[in-house]
Amino acid sequence: MTIENTDTPQLIPIREVSKLTGVNAVTLRAWERRYGLIKPHRTAKGHRLYSNEHITLIKQIVEWINRGVAVSKVKGLLEKQTTQPATIETPSTESTNNEQWLSYQEQISTAVQHFNETKLDDLCNQALAIYPINTVSNSLLLPILKALEKTWQHEYGSQAERIFFYQYLRNKLNIKLYHANKQATGDKLLLIAPPTEPTDIYLFFPALLAVSYNYQVQFFGPDLPINEISYITTKAHFDSVILVSHHSMSSLFKREIPQLLNSVQLPLAIIGEANIIHGKQFDSLGILHSTTLNKDFLSTLIDGRK
């Protein structure tokens, strides 16, 4: 549908839709062109505009994808949901989607082992064009990272593969984060990988997720001493601090963590698999924590400042 009045308050441009739903514009266009999932309105110049009904539909699509349904199967499920809301089942579609992610993982692993950056980039671009960054992170990039890290512990050539893949991910995700961060207008988060982390690579995933929800993000890797976090927060404005840790933080509990709590006058949270190890200690210190990051967790963290 083409419309003439671009000031209609009920219609929203694609950039704002991305902020509201966490789904980037490239993915929204792919859902429209390739899968026919969304049919936005168009201005006379061809710009896409979305209604509140479109926003609801996009959120439903994301829900199905997060439940393990392949994008190619979502349209049929949405149609069934309209006519038979109580009888929808997803085992077969979930199985199909799992097979798709496993195929992606195997192909990426092979590309890394052969240092084939062109193939690696093609595979990542395919996934990022179809799925939200959170889905790609949780279903593809994080699993393949963990799988590769297990093989890298023992095999000859593992250091070369690690450097190659980390360098590719940093370049790829840094570009996405840079452009998304420029458009974000929400509260500003400071993400930190503590010194107990071996790499900064896992910072990119929560950073990209937060930016997809319109938060502004800046992060520092494990080279930053814990006691300099307060220095950063006195020199620049931030609304909260998040430590991202997937390893034991035992060496930090005697001095660094208590000092951090006393010196940083901002809401503090810790996310990552370190929560499996230290959950009770975080509770005793009154630190908000979770193994994963999501929109509700971020809202709770920011509300602690207000």
From TrEMBL:
Give start and end of each HTH merR-type domain.
Answer: 11-80
Transcription regulation listed as a keyword: yes
Signal sequence bounds: none
Organism for this UniProt entry? Spartinivicinus marinus
- What SMART domains is this protein classified in? HTH_MERR (SM00422)
Q: What is this protein called?
A: MerR family transcriptional regulator
Q: Coiled-coil ranges per the record?
A: none
Alphabetically sorted, this entry's keywords are: DNA-binding, Transcription, Transcription regulation
Q: Which InterPro entries match?
A: Cbl-bd_cap, DNA-bd_dom_put_sf, MerR-type_HTH_dom, MerR_fam
According to the UniProt entry, its GO molecular function terms are: DNA binding; DNA-binding transcription factor activity
Q: Which SUPFAM superfamilies match?
A: Putative DNA-binding domain (SSF46955)
Source taxon at top rank: Bacteria
